[in-house]
Amino acid sequence: MAGMSVLARPRGLRQGDHVCWAYDQERGFGVVAAQFLAEGVALGERVLFVGEGDAAQLVEELDSLPGRDALLASGQLQVQPLSDVYLGNGGLDPVAQTELFAAAGVAAVEDGYTGLRVAGDLTGLVRDPSRWEDVRTYEIIIDSVIAGHPLTGMCGYAAPTVPGERLRPLAALHGIRHVDGDTLTFVARVRGGVLVLAGEVDTGCADDLDEVLVGVGRLGAGPVTVDLAGLDFVDVGATRALVRFATGLRATGRPVRFVGAGRGARRVLELFDVELA
Questions:
Q1: 8 Å CB contact between 199 and 227
Q2: Is the pTM of this model over 0.85?
Q3: What's the mean per-residue pLDDT of the chain?
C-alpha cells in the first residue's frame, strides 16, 4: 500500500526511515537492534542503543553486534538507559525529545559521521498508562523530524506487554513496521502541519484511526488539513471516525479541511456531508 511497508528483517533501511518493530519479549530486542545498528555502522553512521536497564546491561544485549567493544571505544556506538534519554527531567516532553534527536543527528554529521541511527526499546514508556498520550504525541512528531534530518529510527515495543489497543495506533504512525499478525492497513503522518493518510481505512481499524486523530488534534491550536490522496479505500466506519474528528475540532473553533479525496473516498465522505476541498 502507498506510503506503508512491512519489514521482515531489520535491514535495507536508510536515513529518513522510521520503523516500528514489535518483538517477542522472551527473545528480546537486542538481536534485532544489533542487526539494525550494524547496517548503520557499515553506512558510516553513529549508532545509539536505548533501552531499560543500566549501560552494562544494554551493552550485553548487543553481544551479537560485530565489533561491539571497538565501536564503543571509538564512540561510534553509544548506549544510554531509557530513563536518561526520555525521562531525564522526570517525564516525557515530546517536543523537547524530538528536538534533542534532531540536534544529535546534526552533531553526528559535524563529528564526521554520515548521520545518526537510533534503536530504542520504548516499552517502558508505554507500560505507564499516564504516559500514553505523550508517547503517541512523540511518535507523531518524531516521524516528521526523522524525515527531515540525518536520522534513521527504530522504535521497539515488546508484545504482548504493549497491548494491541496501544500498539496498533503507534504502529500506524510508522511508514515501516514489523508486527506479527498485523491487521493495520493504513499509515498516518504529519508533514508541514498536514495529516497525510495512506492505504485503506475501514471499520476494522476505525478505533486505531480514532486514536491517531485524537493525537493529531492535540498537537496544536490552529486549522487542520487532512490529505486523503493516498487513501485507496475508506468505508462507513472509518468515515465516522473522520467526521467525529472534524466535528470535535470545529466545535472548538478550529477549521478542518479534507483534501485530495479520490472518487471512491469522496463518494462515501459526501454521504456524511463532509466538506471536501
A1: no
A2: yes
A3: 92
